[in-house]
Amino acid sequence: MDSAHLGDDLDHVLYTQEQIHARLEELGKEIWADYHDKEVLLVGVLKGAVLVMADLMRALPGTVTMDWMAVSSYGSGTKSSGVVRILKDLDTDISNRHVLIVEDIIDSGLTLNWIRSNLLSRNPASLEICTLLRKPEAAKVEIDCKYVGFEIPNEFVVGYGLDFDEKYRNLRDIGVLAPHMYS
Ligand code: 5GP
Question: What Pfam families does the record tag this protein with (predicted)?
Fold first, then answer.
């Protein structure tokens, strides 16, 4: 879906699909420089990271494997529930594996902090994080994130896998949702 089809649902487009793809290609090069001699397992967090994973893994020029986790963090609104629960666990045993978490967005950081501790308790050989978007002003916990696509203002964004009430995930661009959509 293109932003032009959304009427006034969006306040403005933040990043076009071309800008997103170009940045993921760059991140892919950085990641491959660090992992080319290791077997990296990409761990995606459903559902928001689906498109980031799809494009990032194709930007990596060698063999990688992937697995998925689903956790609950947000309800149907735009506020964190503060409760994290595993809805779907990994299929892979990650002990002694080099794990790279692939995320769509870090907002308060609470969800990812929880996931990080949970995965660390499984004794991976290494654990790093890649996120397409990060909101530095919204951070409630500091998370050491090695690969960041874009730092964005503290606004609610949709598109490129990110939803509002399960909608807009198929928007090609990333845009700021117009406040009248959720107020
Ligand atoms: P955090 O725990 O870092 O506050 O946020 C965790 C999850 O909330 C993210 O993985 C994402 O699913 C959702 N989230 C946070 N900020 C936004 C946003 O601006 N837009 C959308 N669509 N989801 C968000």
Answer: Pribosyltran
